[in-house]
Amino acid sequence: MSTLLVTHPACLDHIVPQGHPERPDRMRAIERALEDEKFVTLAREQAPMLALETVALCHPLEYVEAIREASPREGMAQIDGDTTMSPGSFEAALRGAGGAVLAVDEVIAKKASNAFVATRPPGHHAEKTRSMGFCFFNNAAIAARYAQKKHGLSRVALVDFDVHHGNGSQDIFWDDKTVLYCSTHEMPLYPGSGARNERGEHNNIVNAPLQSGDGGVQFRAAMENAVLPRVAEFKPDLIVISAGFDAHMRDPLASLNLTEDDYVWITRRLMEIADGCAGGRVVSVLEGGYDLEGLARSAAAHVTTLMRG
Ligand SMILES: [Zn+2]
Q1: Of the four listed, 44, 112, 140, 171, which is most buried by Cβ atoms within 10 Å?
Q2: For residue 208, what is the domain's CATH number?
Q3: For the segment 68-101, what is each residue's pLDDT rounded down to a tens digit?
Q4: Tens digit of pLDDT for each residue in 20-47?
């Protein structure tokens, strides 16, 4: 079995204002890096558009409809301070969620050993009823809940190493004891949530904030001390990763100092836990990462590690 890579060219059609960091070139940079011959054994599939009823696993249908209605026929519509829609955005968002769900199907069917979903817009800031922070639908959260509802998995761990706190994922799973949501993130930083004492209704939320200037040593310690033991103890049937690469030292939106080696390390550690309790099942979904070189190199290191599984 090989690692599955899920993308779709329509994700380039989510157009953003000039100078916006969450731009189509992010996907192009990752795709270029993954064209290298060492990725020739990747299975590659195109992300389908997710049915609206499946998006509704995490977002009420009225919210999904409101996003569709906000889509402009031309130009751009402002959704929140830093989130806009172009005519292609709704389809791109549905393909991001659809790609994550396809990855779950393929990994559970053992057609792929694990998967990386390289789509945009990202998802982890999208709350149940609120789009924000470049996100409309919470792709990783939808993947987790879909794995439970469609495939009958009992427990899913969602591990988020994006430099920003996944307030949307925390909101969606706050009172859901069947999903463990764990996040390392820089604090203080957008969106402001993610303090250590935010633990969820069932102690099912684990926040391990880092400080500006922290690097691999502090990141690995936070994972080793606060996150990984909780994931292992939870014995998930699937690990979903919210894989943002904006904690990279080159990233312009934050001030952590991770390198590709740190992404290799955390990927490996999560795969080891998945090997122990989840039949190796790991579905990784792209979130942030705004320096094109840092993003491409980090995503390539992440995928290379997934392929070694
Ligand atoms: Zn981020």
Answers
A1: 140
A2: 3.40.800.20
A3: 999 999 999 999 899 999 999 999 999 999 999 9
A4: 999 999 999 999 999 999 999 999 999 9
245 C-alpha vs ligand 1 centroid, how far in Å? 7
Q: Which residues are catalytic?
A: 125
How far, in Å, are 1, 55, 177, 178, 297 from residue 174 at the CA level?
35, 18, 8, 10, 33
pTM (2 decimals)? Answer: 0.98
H/E element, 286: strand 282-286
Compute, in angstroms, the gap from residue 109 CA to the centroid of ligand 1: 31
Helix/strand/coil (H, E, C) string of 240-280? EEEECCCCECCCCCCCCEECHHHHHHHHHHHHHHHHHHCCC
| Mean predicted lDDT score pLDDT of the chain | 98
CA 189–ligand 1 middle distance (angstroms): 10
Q: For residue 151, report the distance from its CA to the centre of ligand 1, in Å.
A: 29
Distance CA 158, CA 198 (A): 16
β-strand 3-7 against 114-117: which pairing, if any?
parallel
Determine contact, residues 71/65, Cβ cutoff 8 Å.
Answer: no
Which residue, chain included where needed, has tokens 């590659």?
44
Separation of CA 165 and ligand 1 centre (Å): 7
Q: Which domain holds residue 120?
A: 3-308
Give residue 289 CA to ligand 1 midpoint distance, Å.
6
The C-alpha atoms of residue 22 and residue 15 are separated, in whole angstroms, by: 9
H-helix or E-strand spanning residue 116: strand 114-117
- Residues with CB in 5 Å of ion ligand 1: 162, 164, 244, 246, 288
